[in-house]
Design a protein that fits this description.
single chain; 363 residues; Rossmann fold; 2 domains; seven-stranded parallel β-sheet; five-stranded parallel β-sheet; 12 helices
Amino acid sequence: MKTIRVLVVDDSALVRSLLSEIINRQSDMACVGVANDPLIAREMIRELNPDVITLDIEMPRMDGLDFLGRLMRLRPTPVVMISTLTERGAEATLKALELGAVDFVSKPRLGLADGLRELSDQIVDKVRAASQANVRRIAPASAVSSTAQKDTAPITPSVRATGASFSTEKLVFIGASTGGTEAIKEILVRLPANFPAVLVTQHMPPGFTKTFAARLNGLSKLAVREAVNGERLLPGHAYIAPGGTQFRVDRSGANYLAVVEDCPPVNRHKPSVEVLFKSAAKLVGRNACGVLLTGMGNDGAQALREMKDAGSYNYVQDEASCIVFGMPREAMLYGAADEVLPPTAIAESLIQRLRSVPDRYRI
């Protein structure tokens, strides 16, 4: 088995020591170097050629986001961000994912040493996933400083979607993990304002999903927000599973409702795609469309097959566009996919599939 070579970049000596210790305890990993700022890290990357980099955001001499942008332009390397669990930290973390970071771990605000040790399993899982990630070179225009860059304007939906009406009883279910924040964005920004309700489970811890929803809301024609327990699911809206909860759909008469509850992890995830998709299979059936995007592991794959057996039409992200092809591959092995497409094509296909056909065109 190839040893995963990891470079730790953090301005905290304690964090550098703890991460090195966690990594070196693994039989398949080695911390090949540590750096206390990006300028030192730049020279170490050239010398050591690491497989994965863990990177802090707030550091001296060069901001972590600026460094990440330059790295992904010039020498794309899998990066796991080490971020702080604050509103500002959440914004910066989402920006890092946009710039090409594979995943992130949020540092505890109190009890740093004990907190990082408790997160050791999560850290090494994310480093392993990152070592398999399909990272891409980012164009210079996409990698400017976070302080200077402005969010792009919402993408205009397909001309064929303009003025189209959609079936009000349909629901779209999206599940994603590693690399999913950008894939979800690519779909949602292309959907028109009157599109059927979209339910999203993205593997993400508490404190980040609210910021994620707000960011998408500013880019999409849909109203995007964290799901609230008991609320009616309405067309023109996208509902994001709150981090640290399980999210599923329920039914009351003709209405679909959001259920957000504090339940145990499923497939080690909370929220879990499996929970959302199983509720779709049970209660929505042929009125559902399922979408499984990039991610490590198999969460949601079997439940997507249950959706298909219940009459759902399902999409799986193609390998070429995935950061990590694990979850989509598993869904394909279950025979759960009707189509395998990149996110932009999934959005276009959803628009055409869910359009209401005027009576004069019905047979």
